[in-house]
Amino acid sequence: MNYPTTIKGCNQALAARYSLALLDLDGVVYRGAQAVEYAAEGITAAAQCGMRIAYTTNNPSRYPDIVADQISSFGVEAHGSDVITSAMVSAAMLSEKLPHGARVLVIGKDHLKTELSNAGLAVVDSAADQPDAVIQSWFPELAWNALAEAAYAIENGAQYFVTNRDLTLPRAEGIAPGNGAMQLPVIAATGQEPIASAGKPESAMYHQARHLFSPTDQMVETQDCLPVGDRLDTDIEAANRGGYDSVVVLTGVADAEQIMRAEPIQRPTYICSDLRGLSRTQPYVRWENGQAVCGDTCAWVENAKVHVRVQGKELTDNISSLDALRSAASAAWSVVDAGECTAAELITPGFTSQLFESEEA
User: pLDDT tens for residues 261-275?
Assistant: First the structure.
């Protein structure tokens, strides 16, 4: 698998280059009940360019229609048929791994239970029902008793599956524990790691989405799909595992520091400050005299230190240029890939929390 070695450019608006956008939700479209800044504007503009907008979420607790209603409340037209959840992917995963009618203890909400039942699996409520498998998901009311039932079942031989491994969730109030964090008590109690995860960073959700959201009987081609997310360790890694180009937006978990230090499998193809980037061209990073150049910025690495110059002036902190991050990430990745230093050894410059395109600065 070839992973990104530099940030990529595009002479067309991304919404014209790619026919299907697969947008993550938490941290990309909304944070809890609140819309992410410029999300509605960006989605509307991309759709006007002809891009099919679909939504992918590792959250298995809500039915697609409920998710679509929330998106619509932000002024964006959305329907349940535009949404794929990890509950839907989980049903496909377990129906492949378990025999028809197998008993599954569901640590989750009604949406996940409905999807499993529709797939021909028998949903049970406790370890006393002697389930063949356990699937654990996130939901706000998750309690100790439910985690204990999962542990008892696994200790009695049930196979352990999870809907996703997200350690954290961006919410309106801040960053909260995700499903991956809630798996830690079960793993500690049983000594068993999950056998498989349905959600990102596995690429199964994107593959299933290419079929679900295709306008024809044929799957949308991989090169025509563009996953968009705020997390390198789920959204972007899933894209790289599946051979997709990807966009990371800076409205959720990922920040400049993480991007510069990203391992190859977690590197995005493009960086956008928010979803308005979908309707924009993307500047190319070119190499001149050992420096990564993007727009009026350039970056290079000496003795593991990443240097950044913006409009001829070297900056070490409070850098607000998105082009500078594109340059810096490309320069950092190049020395790591060359074995000159590790990602952990990089000395990186400081970027502001909000970055701007050159025309916005």
Answer: 999 999 999 999 999
